[in-house]
Write a structure and sequence with these properties.
Shape: globular
Structural class: alpha/beta
Strand content: 5-15%
Strand order of the largest sheet: 1-2-3-4-5-6-7-8
Largest sheet: 8 strands, parallel, barrel
Distance between the termini: 14 Å
Helix content: 40-55%
Number of helices: 11
Radius of gyration: 18 Å
Bound molecules: flavin-adenine dinucleotide
Number of strands: 8
Length: 292
Amino acid sequence: MKISEILRQDRGSFSFEVFPPKKQEGFEKIERVVERLCRQHPSYISVTFGAAGGRDSHTADVAAFIRRQGATPLAHLTCVSYTRDELHRKLTELRTLGIENILALRGDLPAGMTPEDLPADRYRYASELTAAIRDFGGFCVGGACYPETHVECSHWRDDIDHLRRKVEAGADFLTTQMFFDNALMYRFLWRLRTADIQVPVVAGIMPITNAAQVARCRSLAGCFFPHRFLMLVDRWGDQPAAMEQAGVAYATEQIVDLLANGVTSIHLYTMNKPTVAEAILRNLSELLPPRT
Ligand code: FAD
């Protein structure tokens, strides 16, 4: 099913993100993760693509496995280090596997590469990849967006302007970068609406379950952490079980506040931890729309 149809149903959505294994040996493990997540009847499950600048590893295979479980997959696809021909081959592969949804991303410079190493005929921005996928035809296309402004963009107005181009190029919906202060999301939604960007926006929520993730979120995505959250890390950061429980409670509270304020599409960055996703869903059992 196309995610644009799911989001159009106006019942809200609850979805998960998983990342694929780097090597074939990890495939069985991700299959078990996906099977458990599917028991929660998510609206869809997204699969990252060579995150942190790496190249593709098994995204299409994991997406195909999700489809075989009867769930809707969303395959991420980055363009920064691929030629146009390589990307067109990937689109053909996804189509052959029956994948209908792609999150079109630029991606980041792979480790050890300089801009001079990148293919000259690449798509430079996600908006260009989005337009190419549209021309290819048959896919629902999503895009990334940044409530705190993308780290490379010096002014939020420029970032919103670039985002508008992405939507005009054909993005059907947007998924946010993780954020830990809902006020940032509400301000961002206001900015989108005043810029007349009207596509559905899915809120990306990351349950932080260990202290190391805080440093990673800061360095990779420039995330702001409210004092209230940092106090939890200070208190329980060196006690894994306690930190996981506090992280689940914080993410739950964030989602409750979003739902209460009309943000009804939630995407959980599961970090391949079904126990965390299950705990959050238990906490929200009466608040989320029924999923079949
Ligand atoms: P773009 O939309 O192209 O934007 C990148 C930068 O360029 C921004 O600063 C933007 O303002 C600027 N820009 C855009 N258009 C123009 C223009 N025409 N002229 C000048 N500047 C412009 N990374 C992975 O490697 N794999 C993944 O699976 C993955 N999944 C993600 C999922 C989500 C929901 C999010 C939010 C991010 C994800 N990322 C992933 C990270 C993403 O690849 C990086 O944040 C990357 O730096 C930007 O990607 P983008 O698609 O947002 O790029």
